[in-house]
Every structure is written in C-alpha cells, then in structure tokens.
Design brief:
This protein has helices spanning 7-17, 41-46, 67-78, 117-121, 123-126, 170-188; strands at residues 30-32, 38-40, 102-104, 109-111, 130-132, 147-149, 154-156, 167-169. The chain is α+β, with helices and mostly antiparallel strands. This is RING-type domain-containing protein.
C-alpha cells in the first residue's frame, strides 16, 4: 500500500496546532480559553494580566484542562513507525517526535520544520547559526554530527565529545582537506 505524499504536511500542520505559542513546545495540560486559543495551563497562568497572549481578549479564569487536546498529544507522543518520525540514524526534533531539519549550533538543539520557526522569526534567535541536516546523525545518540576527532578520525555529536579530545568542527576539517587536496593537485600537475 503506497503512503500518502501529503501525510508529512498533515503531520506538520497537526504538530503546529498542538504547539503552545507561548513556550513553543507541545502542550502540557492544554487549556482552551473563551476566545478559542489554547495554551499550556502553566504558560497561561504565568502570563501577566488577564488577557489572551495571542489576541489580548479578556480571560476570566484559567479553564479546565482540554481532555481532547490531551488525548491527541498522548497519541502523537505514543505513536510509532511513522514515516516522518526520526528514524534510526536520523536526527529527531528536540521538541517533538518529527524528523529534525535543522540544528542550532548555539542552542545545541535540533528542530523540525514546525519548531524551527521560532529561530526564523525571533530577531534574537535569527543570529544563531543553523545547520541543515542531511541524514548525518550519531548512531549512538541520534544527534547531528558536527565535530571531527582528528586523532581517531571519526565524526562526533555534542554528546560524544570529551574535553580532552582533539576535535574541530566538520566544516573546518573539510576546508583543511580541500586546501591540502588543491596543493597536492598543483604539485602533481
């Protein structure tokens, strides 16, 4: 049976709807207020004033937990075998279970297309260096391979690295190798 090509887009849209706009995480104890917007219960309680964080509509009181949203989040967190989930050897989003598309070298976190939006739209976060993920992930930790150990000649994620090791960013090592290769070509020609 062929898989529906629209399924990943549908999942991204669903994840977006199940994400709190205050903390940008999947809802925890989601509540829906009278204007129709939903937030994590603690995020809404932590907001100063009695207004909706999105539309500033008045909020009389913090409502009860939305059971339907809770069940949907439990299903999203508990589902397995999904083609858009991070498979073995692929980097998974640090916020949800979707496959990560980019990693932030400042936050040392990886994000799917839904959760990377905060980095793309927040002025402060736009200065962070983002790297596209191209199937390179640590088999042990599922994190992006961003370092190269020059002694062992292996690629490493942030969790593999120890302070005593002689490591460099992969891009630095690639530049060195390209320069060496160019010099060798000139010498041999």
């Amino acid at each position: 049976m062929a898989s529906d090509p629209k399924l990943p887009d549908l999942l991204v849209s669903l994840m977006d709807k199940l994400t709190c706009s205050v903390c940008t995480q999947l809802f925890t104890d989601p509540v829906t207020i009278t204007c129709g917007h939903s937030f994590c219960k603690t995020c809404l309680e932590d907001q100063s004033g009695n207004q909706c964080p999105k539309c500033q509509a008045p909020v009389e009181r913090v409502p009860e937990v939305n059971v339907v949203l809770c069940e949907m989040i439990q299903q999203v967190n508990g589902q397995g075998g999904n083609e858009s989930q991070g498979a073995s050897g692929e980097v998974q989003c640090d916020v949800c279970t979707l496959k990560a598309e980019k990693s932030c070298l400042v936050c040392l976190s990886s994000y799917c297309s839904v959760h990377i939006r905060k980095h793309l739209h927040n002025r402060r976060l736009q200065r962070h260096e983002l790297k596209d993920l191209d199937q390179r992930a640590c088999q042990k930790h599922g994190r992006p391979l961003v370092f190269y150990n020059t002694n062992q000649q292996v690629f490493m994620c942030v969790h593999c690295v120890s302070i005593s090791e002689d490591i460099v960013f992969i891009e630095e090592e690639a530049k060195k190798k390209k320069v060496k290769c160019c010099i060798l070509k000139l010498f041999l020609s």
